[in-house]
Design brief:
9 strands; alpha/beta; globular
Protein backbone atom coordinates (compact mmCIF):
# COMPACT_ATOMS: atom_id res chain seq x y z
CA UNK A 1 0.00 0.00 0.00
CA UNK A 2 1.13 3.54 -0.68
CA UNK A 3 2.77 4.89 2.48
CA UNK A 4 1.29 8.42 2.25
CA UNK A 5 -2.19 6.96 1.84
CA UNK A 6 -1.77 4.59 4.76
CA UNK A 7 -0.48 7.47 6.89
CA UNK A 8 -3.58 9.50 6.00
CA UNK A 9 -5.86 6.81 7.42
CA UNK A 10 -3.64 6.32 10.46
CA UNK A 11 -3.78 10.06 11.21
CA UNK A 12 -7.48 10.52 10.43
CA UNK A 13 -8.96 7.29 11.79
CA UNK A 14 -11.39 8.93 14.22
CA UNK A 15 -12.59 11.57 11.72
CA UNK A 16 -13.00 8.99 8.97
CA UNK A 17 -14.86 6.65 11.30
CA UNK A 18 -17.33 9.41 12.15
CA UNK A 19 -18.70 9.55 8.63
CA UNK A 20 -22.12 8.12 7.86
CA UNK A 21 -22.49 5.90 4.79
CA UNK A 22 -25.85 5.02 3.31
CA UNK A 23 -25.14 4.69 -0.41
CA UNK A 24 -23.46 1.29 -0.12
CA UNK A 25 -26.27 -0.32 1.89
CA UNK A 26 -28.09 -1.64 -1.18
CA UNK A 27 -24.85 -3.06 -2.60
CA UNK A 28 -24.04 -4.79 0.68
CA UNK A 29 -27.51 -6.34 0.87
CA UNK A 30 -27.29 -7.56 -2.75
CA UNK A 31 -23.86 -9.06 -1.99
CA UNK A 32 -25.13 -10.87 1.11
CA UNK A 33 -28.15 -12.19 -0.82
CA UNK A 34 -25.70 -14.16 -3.02
CA UNK A 35 -24.32 -16.05 -0.01
CA UNK A 36 -25.56 -19.06 1.97
CA UNK A 37 -26.70 -18.40 5.57
CA UNK A 38 -23.77 -18.12 7.97
CA UNK A 39 -21.22 -17.81 5.16
CA UNK A 40 -17.64 -16.94 6.10
CA UNK A 41 -16.67 -13.45 4.91
CA UNK A 42 -13.29 -11.74 4.91
CA UNK A 43 -13.65 -7.98 5.01
CA UNK A 44 -10.67 -5.98 3.78
CA UNK A 45 -10.40 -2.30 4.70
CA UNK A 46 -13.27 -2.44 7.18
CA UNK A 47 -12.80 1.15 8.36
CA UNK A 48 -14.92 1.80 11.45
CA UNK A 49 -16.67 -1.55 11.09
CA UNK A 50 -20.10 -0.43 9.90
CA UNK A 51 -20.38 -3.08 7.20
CA UNK A 52 -19.04 -5.74 9.57
CA UNK A 53 -21.78 -4.86 12.06
CA UNK A 54 -24.44 -5.27 9.34
CA UNK A 55 -23.05 -8.65 8.30
CA UNK A 56 -22.75 -9.91 11.87
CA UNK A 57 -26.33 -8.81 12.61
CA UNK A 58 -27.47 -11.01 9.72
CA UNK A 59 -25.69 -14.07 11.09
CA UNK A 60 -22.60 -14.14 8.88
CA UNK A 61 -19.18 -15.29 10.12
CA UNK A 62 -17.06 -12.18 9.47
CA UNK A 63 -13.32 -11.60 9.81
CA UNK A 64 -12.93 -7.80 9.74
CA UNK A 65 -9.48 -6.38 8.90
CA UNK A 66 -7.95 -3.01 8.09
CA UNK A 67 -4.50 -1.91 6.97
CA UNK A 68 -4.32 0.86 9.57
CA UNK A 69 -3.77 -0.20 13.21
CA UNK A 70 -5.51 2.99 14.33
CA UNK A 71 -8.57 2.28 12.19
CA UNK A 72 -8.60 -1.34 13.36
CA UNK A 73 -8.59 0.00 16.93
CA UNK A 74 -11.57 2.26 16.23
CA UNK A 75 -13.44 -0.65 14.62
CA UNK A 76 -12.59 -2.94 17.55
CA UNK A 77 -14.20 -0.46 19.97
CA UNK A 78 -17.24 -0.04 17.73
CA UNK A 79 -17.78 -3.77 17.26
CA UNK A 80 -16.73 -4.97 20.72
CA UNK A 81 -14.41 -7.54 19.15
CA UNK A 82 -10.84 -7.63 17.89
CA UNK A 83 -10.24 -6.29 14.39
CA UNK A 84 -6.92 -7.37 12.90
CA UNK A 85 -4.45 -5.19 11.07
CA UNK A 86 -3.89 -6.83 7.68
CA UNK A 87 -2.10 -5.43 4.65
CA UNK A 88 -3.36 -6.83 1.35
CA UNK A 89 -0.03 -8.39 0.37
CA UNK A 90 0.02 -10.34 3.66
CA UNK A 91 -3.14 -12.29 2.77
CA UNK A 92 -1.94 -15.88 2.31
CA UNK A 93 -4.89 -18.16 3.05
CA UNK A 94 -6.13 -20.79 0.61
CA UNK A 95 -9.84 -21.49 -0.01
CA UNK A 96 -10.78 -20.16 3.42
CA UNK A 97 -13.77 -17.87 2.71
CA UNK A 98 -17.15 -18.01 1.01
CA UNK A 99 -16.82 -14.31 0.21
CA UNK A 100 -14.55 -11.28 0.34
CA UNK A 101 -15.94 -7.76 0.81
CA UNK A 102 -13.48 -4.98 -0.10
CA UNK A 103 -15.40 -1.73 -0.21
CA UNK A 104 -13.39 1.37 -1.22
CA UNK A 105 -9.99 -0.02 -0.23
CA UNK A 106 -8.40 -1.81 -3.20
CA UNK A 107 -8.65 1.50 -5.08
CA UNK A 108 -5.51 2.50 -3.14
CA UNK A 109 -3.40 -0.47 -4.32
CA UNK A 110 -0.62 0.70 -6.69
CA UNK A 111 -1.41 -0.40 -10.24
CA UNK A 112 1.63 -2.70 -10.60
CA UNK A 113 0.59 -4.55 -7.41
CA UNK A 114 -3.15 -4.96 -8.01
CA UNK A 115 -2.95 -8.22 -9.99
CA UNK A 116 -0.98 -9.85 -7.15
CA UNK A 117 -3.47 -8.63 -4.52
CA UNK A 118 -6.41 -9.87 -6.60
CA UNK A 119 -4.66 -13.24 -7.06
CA UNK A 120 -4.29 -13.49 -3.26
CA UNK A 121 -8.00 -12.77 -2.84
CA UNK A 122 -8.87 -15.32 -5.54
CA UNK A 123 -6.74 -17.93 -3.74
CA UNK A 124 -8.37 -17.14 -0.37
CA UNK A 125 -11.86 -17.70 -1.79
CA UNK A 126 -13.48 -21.11 -1.78
CA UNK A 127 -14.66 -22.39 -5.19
CA UNK A 128 -17.73 -20.36 -6.27
CA UNK A 129 -16.82 -17.71 -3.67
CA UNK A 130 -18.09 -14.17 -4.21
CA UNK A 131 -15.88 -11.08 -4.25
CA UNK A 132 -16.96 -7.42 -4.14
CA UNK A 133 -14.69 -4.41 -4.57
CA UNK A 134 -15.16 -0.77 -5.57
CA UNK A 135 -12.80 1.60 -7.36
CA UNK A 136 -12.74 5.25 -8.41
CA UNK A 137 -12.99 5.30 -12.20
CA UNK A 138 -10.30 6.91 -14.34
CA UNK A 139 -7.65 6.32 -16.94
CA UNK A 140 -4.44 6.28 -14.91
CA UNK A 141 -3.23 6.49 -11.34
CA UNK A 142 -2.82 9.70 -9.34
CA UNK A 143 -3.52 11.45 -6.05
CA UNK A 144 -6.51 13.32 -4.72
CA UNK A 145 -6.46 16.67 -2.91
CA UNK A 146 -5.69 14.84 0.37
CA UNK A 147 -2.58 13.21 -1.20
CA UNK A 148 -4.16 9.75 -1.18
CA UNK A 149 -3.03 7.47 -4.02
CA UNK A 150 -5.70 5.97 -6.32
CA UNK A 151 -5.26 3.47 -9.13
CA UNK A 152 -8.17 5.07 -11.11
CA UNK A 153 -8.94 2.13 -13.44
CA UNK A 154 -11.19 1.95 -16.47
CA UNK A 155 -13.63 -0.97 -16.73
CA UNK A 156 -11.57 -2.58 -19.52
CA UNK A 157 -8.33 -2.27 -17.53
CA UNK A 158 -10.01 -3.85 -14.48
CA UNK A 159 -11.39 -6.75 -16.50
CA UNK A 160 -7.91 -7.49 -17.81
CA UNK A 161 -6.34 -7.37 -14.33
CA UNK A 162 -9.04 -9.63 -12.86
CA UNK A 163 -8.51 -12.11 -15.70
CA UNK A 164 -4.79 -12.10 -14.96
CA UNK A 165 -5.43 -12.78 -11.27
CA UNK A 166 -7.60 -15.89 -11.55
CA UNK A 167 -10.50 -17.70 -13.20
CA UNK A 168 -13.93 -16.19 -12.56
CA UNK A 169 -17.24 -17.77 -13.59
CA UNK A 170 -18.80 -14.32 -13.67
CA UNK A 171 -17.68 -10.71 -13.36
CA UNK A 172 -19.95 -7.65 -13.49
CA UNK A 173 -19.04 -3.98 -13.28
CA UNK A 174 -21.63 -1.32 -12.43
CA UNK A 175 -21.07 2.42 -12.30
CA UNK A 176 -22.27 5.10 -9.91
CA UNK A 177 -21.22 8.15 -7.93
CA UNK A 178 -20.32 8.63 -4.28
CA UNK A 179 -19.34 11.60 -2.12
CA UNK A 180 -15.78 11.14 -0.92
CA UNK A 181 -14.04 12.15 2.30
CA UNK A 182 -12.69 15.13 0.34
CA UNK A 183 -16.32 16.29 -0.21
CA UNK A 184 -16.10 15.68 -3.95
CA UNK A 185 -18.32 13.44 -6.04
CA UNK A 186 -16.43 10.55 -7.60
CA UNK A 187 -17.37 8.20 -10.43
CA UNK A 188 -17.15 4.66 -9.11
CA UNK A 189 -16.85 1.14 -10.49
CA UNK A 190 -18.53 -1.58 -8.41
CA UNK A 191 -17.20 -5.04 -9.24
CA UNK A 192 -18.79 -8.35 -8.27
CA UNK A 193 -17.00 -11.53 -9.29
CA UNK A 194 -17.55 -15.21 -8.59
CA UNK A 195 -14.62 -17.58 -8.45
CA UNK A 196 -14.79 -20.44 -10.90
CA UNK A 197 -15.59 -23.84 -9.44
Amino acid sequence: MDEATLQFYRSNAEAYAGRTFTSRQARLMAFLARLPPGASILELGCGAGGDTAEMLARGFDVRPTDGSPEMAGVASKHLGRTVETLLFHDLDEVEAYDAVWANACLLHVPRPELADVLARIWRALKPAGVFYASYKEGDGDGRDTLDRYYNYPSPDWLRAIYAEAGKWSSLSIETGEVLGFDDRMASMLFVVARKDV
